[in-house]
Amino acid sequence: MAQDVVTRPLALRGMDRATGLLSGAWSFWNTIRKHKPLGAVGLVIVIGIIFVAIFAPLIAPYGYNETIRTDQLAPPSFSHPFGADHLGRDLFSRVVYGARISISIGFGAVGLAMSMATVIGLVSGYYGGWFDKIVQRFVDGWMTFPGLIVALAMVALVGPGVWQLIIVIGLLFGIRNSRVIRGQVLAVMARPHIEVAQSVGVGDFRLITRHVLPNTLPPIIILATIEIPLVILIEASLSFLGFGIPPPYPAWGGMLTWEARQHMLTAPWLAFAPGIALSMTIFGWNMFGDALRDLLDPTLRGSRSER
Amino acid sequence: MAKYALQRILLLIPTLIVISFVTFALIRFIPGDAALAMTEELGYAADLDELRHLLGIDRPIIVQYLDWVGGFIHGDFGSSLWDGSSAAGELLERLPITMEIAGLSLLISAVIAIPIGVFSAVHQDTRGDYSIRSAVVLFDSVPSFWVATLVLVIPAYFIGWVPASGWVSFTEDPVKHLTLVLLPAAIIGMGSTASLIRLTRAMMLEVLRQDYIRTAWSKGLSENSVMYRHALKNALIPVLTFFGLRIPNAFSGSVIMEAVFGIPGVGRWIIDAINFRDYPQLQVALLFIAVMVLVSNLVIDLAYGWLDPRVRYG
Predict the structure, then answer these.
(1) Domains (ranges, CATH) in chain B?
(2) What is the pLDDT of residues A243-264, one digit of tens each?
(3) Chain B within 8 Å of A229 (Cβ-Cβ)?
C-alpha cells in the first residue's frame, strides 16, 4: 500500500505527459487535415516512409544484397513485385532498405546542420562584433559555391559512406543556415522583452537559452522540415554520380547509376522503383514542409531554395 | 548609387580571399594525391617523393597557396598535374558548352513558366489554377537525373529510339549540335520551371492588388494591356533575382546531365579532376564558378535600382 502512495502519482504524471503528447499530436493532425489537406497527405507519406525504414527487415522478403542467380533481370512478378537486378537481387527489398539510407541521411544531415547553424547563428547574432564580421564574410564566400559541386569535392575528401555524407551535407547546409538563424536572432534581440530582461540584469547565458533561443525555434523547425527533401535529393544525386553510398548498399540514387543503366535497356523496370520511391519521399516532405510553414509562420513563404 | 556600387565591389575583396582559400585548402586535403594516382596508374616515376617534388606538391601548404595566388597576377592559373595543359585554357574551351546548356535551360524554363504562372495568377482559385499548382508540386519532386534515366531507357526499350549523346560542335554540324544540347537543357530547365511558375504566380498576385492596376482598369485599358504592359513588367523584377540565384544550380544540374549524356563541359571536367586529384583544374573551376556567381549577384543587385526606381541603396 505504501508503495502505491509513492509510485502512483509518479506513474500518473508520466501518463499525463504521454496523453498530453498524444492529444497534442492529435490536435496537430486535425489542424493540418482541416486547413492543409495536401500537407496531411504529405505527412502520411512521410510517416509511411519512416515506418518502412524502421521495419525494413520485417517488410523486405529478401536481404538487400541477397542474390538469387536464377532470377537475374527477372521482370516484375508475384515473387519480385518490382523485378530483380542484374545480380538477381530483389528490387522491392532493395528499395525498402534504401528508405533507411535516405531517412537516416535526411535526419542526420539536417540535425547536424541545424545544431551547427544554431550555435553559429546565436553567437554571431548575439555578440556581433569582429566575430560576426569574419563569420559573415566566410558564409558569403561559402554560399557562392554550387552545393552539389562543393559536396562532390568534400566527399572526395572524406570518402563515401553514410556518416561521411551526413557530415558533408550537414556542413554544407549548416553554414548556409547560420545566416537565417542569425537574422532571426537579430530580429528577436530587437524586441522589448529582451531589453527588459537585460535591464533587470539577466546574464548572457540565461538570456540566450531562456529568451532568445525559444523565439528562434519555429523558423529552425520549419527550415529543417523544408531542407530534409533537399538533403535527400543531394544524397541521391551524389550516389547517382558514384560519389555517395558505395555498392552494394541500396541507395536509391545509386540504383540508377551507369552500371545499372546498362541493364535498363533490356530491363527497364530497374529504372522505375528507385525513382518512384525517391520522388514520393521528396513529394511527401515538400508537401508537409510547405503546410507546416504556412501554419507556423506565413512570413517565411517562398523561402525554399533548391539544391 | 556610385558610392553603393563601390562599397559592394570593395566588399567583394574579403569574400574573394575566403573563396580562394576555401578552394585551395579543401582540395589539398583530399587524400591520395596526384603523385600516388600517377605512379599507381601510369608508372610515371618509380620514386613517389621525387615525383611529388617535381610537381611541387611537397612544399608547405601556405607556400603553395601564396605561389598559386601569386601566379594570378601574371595570368598563370596553374596547369594540369597530368598533362601540363593550362587549366585556364581548358576551362575556357569547355565553358561555352556548359554556358550554352545552362543558358538554354533557363530560357526554356522562362518560356514555359512565365505564361503558365501569369495564367495561374489571373485565374486564381479556379480549376485551372488548382491543376497547375498540383502539377507544379508534383514536378518539383521528381529528380532530374531520374527523368534523364527514363528518357534514355523507355524509348530505347519500347520503340528502339536512343537519344543522341556525345558531342558535335555547332560549326561542325548545327542540326546535330542542337539535338544534342536541347534534351539535357530541357531536363535541367524542368527543375527550375516548377519554382519559376510558383514565383511568377505569387508576384503577379501581389502586383494585381496594387492601386495602379485598378487605375489601369478604370482607365478602360484592355485586359492584355493591363496584364502584360502594367502588371507583368513589375512582377518580373523578382524573377531577375531568381535567375541570378539559379546560376549555381544550373552548374550543379549541368554536372549531372554532362555525366549522363557524355557532354565534354565544365561539369564532366570537374568530376574527372576530382577522380584524378588534379588540384589545379579543380581549383580553377571552383574559383571561376564562385567568382561568376559573385559578379552576377552584384550585377543583379545593381540592376534592381535601375528597373525599380523605388529601391534605395543604403
Answers:
(1) 94-265 (1.10.3720.10)
(2) 888 888 899 998 988 777 778 8
(3) yes
